[in-house]
Amino acid sequence: PAKIRLRHLLDAKERGRPFTMLTAYDQISAQVFEAAGIDVLLVGDSVGTAVLGYSSTTSTTHQDMLTFTGAVARSVHRPLVVADLAFGTYQTGPEDAVRHGVELIRAGAEAVKLEGGHEIVPQVRALVAAGIPVIGHLGFTPQSVNSLSGHRVQGRETAGADQLADDAIALQEAGVSAIVLELVPAAVAARITEVVAVPTIGIGAGPDCDGQVLVWQDMAGLSGFEGRFVRTFAHLRGQLQTAAEEYRAAVTSRAYPGPEHSFE
Ligand code: KIV
Ligand code: NA
Fold first, then answer.
1. Which fold has domain 6-233?
2. What is the pTM of this model?
3. So where does 3-methyl-2-oxobutanoate get bound (predicted)?
């Protein structure tokens, strides 16, 4: 199958065919998702909470993003690889955004994602002018968890919903290639999906977005996180624990390793 490019996401929107994005942070997960036909791999700054043990993505560093982006980009051919700009690498202005965006592209990303609306339009314009495709991220924006007072659905009131739609249009005019909508009422996400020409990618944003994204350890039942918007398509946490318990039992009882695992 052909290499996925941003153009494919726009085609999918125009044809009304939902596309798929999952986070990936390492070689094995990236290769498994490529084999499964996932269109887009997001090296999210969620690597900080999903892998590195930070309590919020505000702790994820640019160096973290370069390391994990490299791991994913080296491991796959077909999916589009998108990397998050870490907290603090673009809020300070367009020059910083471009400098860090260039490094993510150098590490193997094919587009970068950053959080925010009208306030980051200069950064989006500068990145696009530098030849770096940009994906926006509106609604609940985890890097602003402290300002937003926790993980809350955004745009529930009319004014908030209108602001989200205005921000989506501002991002489109600035040149984004797609927009992630996180924790947004389904009707608001549907409205934004209709008013913008670029694809929307939902997480906790209902069924009408053009694509969907989940953190892979949530999708696979490995993290143990089961928020309302998550469906667990496997139960890997329990399976992995059982495997480790059986390994432990086999070693402590001397059932493993046997002669078949040993060298003459
Ligand atoms: O970092 C991440 O995993 C994300 C997705 C949840 C959209 O930004
Ligand atoms: Na992110």
1. TIM Barrel (3.20.20)
2. 0.97
3. 45-46, 84, 113
